[in-house]
Specification:
Number of strands: 13
Structural class: alpha+beta
Oligomer: single chain
Number of helices: 9
Largest sheet: 8 strands, mixed
Shape: globular
Keywords: Hydrolase, Magnesium, Metal-binding
Motif (Nudix box): 187-209
Protein name: ADP-ribose pyrophosphatase
InterPro entries: NDP_pyrophosphatase, NUDIX_hydrolase-like_dom_sf, NUDIX_hydrolase_dom
Number of domains: 3
Strand content: 25-35%
CATH superfamily of the largest domain: Nucleoside Triphosphate Pyrophosphohydrolase
Cofactor: Mg(2+)
Radius of gyration: 23 Å
């Protein structure tokens, strides 16, 4: 319990005595709370409790071979991954696809090849096949990610939008000669946050921008073949400045972000030329092209 309390940042431990059914019971009390999670009694009975239980489950897996201080340094990621697993329980409909449940998959062995700021899981499993038989034992690995919120800021009155640009490891690791990428504002959903709250926060942090409304575009898996990551994609309604370029990002996270304010037709040119080669940006621009007349009419 002391190890878990240190990882979760629950503060100093106090020795207390509790009275239960007429008996004095020694106990330890932690002064803090786990990250940004709500810690009121009514919250404890809901998703916060489930998220904390998921986080503790991950901590217990690692406690035998990692110092508490190492895990504490990744506390925000642990809690965000836990929140994503809780959010995954709200499944979307299965009207065309198979409604076969995850409980029909037989996990014979589960391991964690890498556990750090990022995490991977390895599975030896069998699953039902469409012909009614069972698959052979398969070995699959998955990148265990957090959920993220992404938002494309758009000014319908001036018909302009904001893109951010930053160095990205994915293109660099692939060997792309130009690893700086144009994309929507984006960020990890912290435990205790809704996707909408994250979208608003990230716009303030990355673009110094306050939104006046959000339009939902989609919630989708990014690369379901090997990653758990889910994107919550929005269009953010706002008043955009006349400044063509700006700087943003948090120094504490070593973010070096440049913002671009461009008109709708310039954005479409980026889409058609292929310079807009970030999946969420492509999807957002296609959605905006479809909804632009409605948004402008109500501006």
């Amino acid at each position: 319990m002391l190890y878990i309390g240190e990882v979760l940042g629950l503060g100093p431990v106090q020795q207390v005595r509790l009275s239960y059914e007429g008996q004095d019971i020694p106990a330890r009390a932690f002064a803090g709370r786990p990250g940004t999670l709500a810690w009121q009694a009514d919250s404890w009975s809901g998703s916060s409790r489930m998220t904390l239980c998921e986080a503790i489950r991950e901590i217990v897996e690692d406690m035998a071979h990692r110092p508490a201080a190492d895990l504490a340094a990744t506390r925000a990621m642990i809690l965000s991954r836990a929140a994503a697993r809780v959010a995954a329980c709200d499944a979307v409909p299965a009207e065309l696809r198979s409604a076969t449940g995850a409980d029909s998959v037989e996990a014979l062995q589960v391991e964690t090849p890498h556990a750090g700021f990022f995490r991977t899981r390895g599975y030896h499993l069998r699953h039902p096949r469409f012909d009614g038989t069972t698959s052979p034992v398969l070995h699959r690995e998955v990148f265990v990610a957090t959920d993220a919120a992404l938002v494309l800021p758009y000014d319908p009155l001036r018909d302009r939008l904001l893109l951010i640009e930053q160095f990205r490891m994915g293109p660099y690791g692939r060997g792309d000669p130009r690893p700086w990428m144009l994309e929507p504002v984006a960020g990890r959903i912290d435990a205790g946050e809704t996707p909408e709250e994250t979208a608003l926060r990230e716009c303030r942090e990355e673009a110094r921008l306050d939104l006046r409304g959000l339009e939902k575009i989609s919630t989708h898996y990014c690369t379901p073949g090997y990653s758990t990551e889910v994107f919550h994609l929005f269009l953010g309604l706002c008043d955009l400045p006349d400044v063509a370029q700006g700087q943003g990002g948090l120094e504490t996270e070593n973010e070096d972000i440049r913002s671009h304010v461009i008109d709708f037709h310039r954005a479409m040119a980026l889409l058609h030329s292929g310079e807009a080669n970030n999946g969420p940006l492509v999807l957002s621009l296609i959605w905006l092209e479809r909804e632009r007349a409605r948004l402008r009419a109500s501006a």
